[in-house]
Design brief:
alpha/beta, FAD/NAD(P)-binding domain, 3 domains, Enolase-like, domain 1, 5-stranded parallel beta sheet, 5-stranded antiparallel beta sheet
Amino acid sequence: MVAPGFLAIGSGPAGVSAAETFRGRHPHIPVRILSADPALPYAKPPLSKEFLDGGHIDLDLHSAGWFRRHGIDLLLGVTVEHIDVDAQEVITRGGAHYPYWHLVLAPGSCAVPLTVPGGHRAQPLRTFGDAVALKMAARYAASAVVIGGGLVGCEAASCLTALGVATTVVVPESVPLQRRFGVDVGKRVAEMLADAGVTVVTSTTVTAVGETEVTLASGATVDADVVLAATGVRPDIRLADDAGLATRQGRVVVDEHMRTSVRNVYAAGDVTIAHNVAAGRPVVAEHWRDAVQQGRVAGLTAAGQPAIWGKVPGFTCRIGAFTLSYRGWGAGYDTATLTDRAGGFSVVYRAGGRVVGTLDVRSSPAS
């Protein structure tokens, strides 16, 4: 039987940040990270940006030696089957038992599958393995179709085009990123994509994926040696549901300290709907820096240190020659005020007269 201590489920930014933070406060208590991903913990944002379009960047969050030197037991390729909150232990698919004093649940999200005929042929872009497979496929492809006009879809489409692959992005809404940023910004994003060489097809869906083409709802077909399903993600709350943790809107409910409804169990990252003290309400935050911050709060709370989540969520993405930087609550808004300026534009989103988000768009330095 292994000794109990601190345990994180998930090797993404939330799990690693939580483990690193706890270790910094308690140098002698056992610290473990269990992850189904076989790869050394890595940064995900570059997968649809620098890594995909040819960059050979170092994605590792830390080296294997770093985890050893800091006494963090990193167990990769391990699937957790069950959390026994009464016994305070985690059981893996192989039947191993890992007792804990403090547990941080940070399994992240799973890609939403493409449920159309031939949808299994479409590649996801969620893990390092996915990114490597897509990059290798693009090397030998003349054409590609990206299904979905969200952040990952837009980024990946512009990167594939930069690699010399004739790329079409299929967007179910009238413009890309419409649900997140509105129609006016979406029109400009469509122009960014077109300027980058991407063919943008809007207000339609893919109804079938063949070996070398996709079929649209109109019956038209588009050549596709490679198909990427950028159809969104779903928080992985299976363990939380099984363990009886309180959930809402398909996410684990946590307070501003990242505490769940169960004693000594915390959650961080994509799976949470967390109380943010700056917003004064529960907030969903699905991006890298938010997961890092929440992981740090969870690690500090588990270590017995005062910590609250009060940062304004935000993210940065790159589409063609432009970098988009957003800060805000990502919820609904009443008005969007767009202001043009040299090399880009900015948008202020308001709800009930209060600013709830800002978007800054600039030409990328390399453009």
